[in-house]
């Protein structure tokens, strides 16, 4: 049985996308690797990558796909 999640509003998706961009920019400006930041934050590198690469298009495509089901 799959879990169903409520779709994000476009405004919320845009905020998350902006957050991801800012996280990555801050990391790169400080010349830190993803591994270093993930260790300091107590999260996995994959979680950090997911946070950094959130895109509004991704959320929009999920919403469209779910409505087609």
UniProtKB/TrEMBL annotation:
SUPFAM superfamilies tied to this protein: lambda repressor-like DNA-binding domains (SSF47413)
Domain HTH cro/C1-type: 23-53
Cited Pfam families: HTH_31
InterPro entries cross-referenced by the UniProt entry: Cro/C1-type_HTH, Lambda_DNA-bd_dom_sf
Gene3D superfamilies per the UniProt record, alphabetical: lambda repressor-like DNA-binding domains (1.10.260.40)
Highest taxon of source: Bacteria
Listed name of the protein: Helix-turn-helix transcriptional regulator
Organism: Pseudomonas granadensis
